Amino acid sequence: MPVSQTCAATESETEGCQPTMPMKSHTSKPRSGKRSMGVKTVMKALKKGGASRGRKPNQSSKGFVWCARGVQRLPKFGTATVKSKQSLFVTPVRMELTKVAKLNLKVVAPSSSCSRRVSKNGRKRKSPDFCGDRSFQSWSSIRVFSATTRTSDKPSQRGIWDFANQVRYSCDYIDACKKFNQKPGRFLNPLAGEFFSGLPSGWTSANAGAVNKEKFFKQFPDMQPNANQGSKIGVIAMFAGCGGLELGLSRYLYPTAYVEKSDYCRKILQLRMDEGLLHRAEIHPDVCTFDASKSSADGAGGGFPCQGVSTASIQKGLKDRRTQLVTHIFRVFDTLPSQHQRFLYFENVKAILGKKQSMRSLFNYIVQETSGRGLTLHWARISLSNVGLAAHRDRVFFFGAKPNDPIVKALRVEPLASLLEKSSVWNELNKVPQHLWLSEEQPCDHNERMGVLGNLVVPACARLGACVALGMAISNAPAP
Ligand SMILES: C[S@@+](CC[C@H](N)C(=O)[O-])C[C@H]1O[C@@H](n2cnc3c(N)ncnc32)[C@H](O)[C@@H]1O
Prior knowledge:
Rossmann fold, alpha/beta, 13 helices, 3-stranded antiparallel sheet, 10-stranded mixed sheet
């Protein structure tokens, strides 16, 4: 029985949308407040003719020089090429994506008569639970960032923002616990994590048959065995995790090999391949030793570790040994037979576009290395709120492609408008799964699953990022 209902956020979620050609400029006002600083700076730079602070404006209004020293943040969408060793020429793409539907939740009593509220071993569940109402389509004031392995007694810097803590510290949840004289649960159920990550239920489980195939193929039609594979690019999927990024990019890419260090993730990848849910390919354990010289792939990429980039760390960038693993994407690309060296892709957190020196160096490194191989880098920063969830988990998707490369031109890039329309419903379930979200204990495999979800690239964000950035790659290419 519902005891209380979280209040729906009332602010307008529509920032304006330009759902047709991503390359067109427009002059919508930047949002006010701290978060709009980057946009303002870029707009100022554009008005001036585009140089970063401390430099003379020296470029056309279509782009600006972005230097290794300076304070300017990078735009959300853009293209970069090398200007000199220390500077890049950045072409920002002025567009704003609609923020779409939210999902309301309510808290239900622990003694609800609902049969699903009794666990498998017959024990009554102790804490009040969240429950989605079929009639609701929007998410409440609880903001979703990422799902992390476990919650602590005190919220940590990251913990305050992570999903489990936000649920746990929800006033509605705390009030309901008090009302029913119950101890609040602390650990998030992976099924809830999967739902809010836009993954099919059971995807991170290491059990066979955990995923409903019919629902899966409905959500990811490009994974169907009869889907048009001909227009896709074969890639080495590095840092594959449980395959979230590759699921999101499944319209465009198919892995000819996966590279992933975690035993648990490799088990998931293998199982989902055996079930026919992932493209079948060999799995290798370490990007540092992977050799692609016999591969038929036309590129390489992946979501490299974000610990040295995220603002939850001190952002050492390329000085962080985990961030340094990005170098292996280029190394592996170079080991591909020369005629196959055609495509690169990367993913990381939004801080990579930030103004901190270490971030600028990392970004510079990526552009220099990409351009050095004859590819132009295009990127799009996508928030969960652009794909159906009222949340601020932003990720940046980079694609490096040769201008006019037929394999890129053959990609069936979705019309942005229709993709945004599809995004108005979060996850294929269309409603919040009713199960215990928070519990006092965390079974061993739940811990593993939450760890995988903490690293996950939300497929819907990747799909939108690819649509925007590959759209730029194709429309930006000079005529042959
Ligand atoms: C940000 S996560 C990638 C998430 C993944 N793209 C997804 O969507 O689930 C980074 C991944 O890199 C993996 N990793 C870290 N070091 C590695 C290495 N040396 N070789 C292979 N994988 C590695 C981690 O285990 C982790 O799963």
